[in-house]
Amino acid sequence: MTSAPSSPELSVVIPCYNEEENVRAICMAVIAEAERAASSHEVVLIDNCSTDGTRAIIRDLCLENPTVRAIFNNRNYGQMRSPTYGIYQASGAAVIGMGADFQDPPAMIGTFMAQWRAGAQVVLGQRRRERSSILLRVVRKAGYGFLSRFGDYPVIPGATGFGLFDRKVVDALARWNEPEPFFRGMLVEVGYRIVVVPFDRPPRAAGRSKNGFASLAGFALSALAGSARSMLRLPLLLAMIGGLGTIVLALVSLVALFLDGPTGTLAFAGLAVASLTVVLLSIGLVAEQVRLLCERSRNVPLVIEEERINFPPAVS
After folding, report:
1. Are strands 122-127 and 68-73 parallel, antiparallel or unpaired?
2. For the whole model, what pTM was predicted?
3. Which of 89, 201, 246, 280 lies deepest, with the highest CB count within 10 Å?
4. How confident is the model over 108-126, as pLDDT tens digits?
């Protein structure tokens, strides 16, 4: 069996958490595609402290094939930090990040590599449609609209981070020291040329998604706080609007008194509740951004490794 190159042409990074039903199949499928698309390759499996048999399977894969490398985190660092850290640890001239559940099709690897060889520095897969509930689709669409309106840079709808990134892009982002990196937003912010490739996302191969509503909501809040720094001025704008609204409500209330109707009271109550909600949201976003600033000042690593396998000594 040939040894794995220390600096391959292609790295494919696959984050895992409790993926014992998928990890071997996805690894084999990725290797088959990488052998066709690249002159040399490595597969980096970064495990986020799985509690099932995922790690044992990864160890077997590393023993069977030296091009398979493993990073075992000492705890679960979430869906933002661990995948990004794995991308930063890859050594390929081109780096592909993808999920372990086949919703990011390995067959796209050849397409991504062709775009990269044609000069693209970032190639992003874009889902043509969402396989989710109506409620989740509505919430996701509203979130994209909010980010487009208030974010510091545009976010590409349907692009989850599945894609290829040139070595210079990965190295540039690794120097940013983001404590909770919103990677798909950072790819736009860094300014390198992006090519978008639409694809139909297949259903999950096996097992259940680890992204419940609570985890997706937390991800969205962190993404919003990290990619909408201009919103720090939003509370001042809302205060001005609220002041004007208070004046209008006072006038309406006076009119309602003469008409002996409840319109003014109801309008006041509704605005009071809406104002409180907006203020609390604004304060929460500012607090989240302050928290990120504190994390940056601490220089906290994205993850702490428990073990790594098959990496060359120079990278360890």
Report:
1. unpaired
2. 0.74
3. 89
4. 999 999 999 999 999 999 9
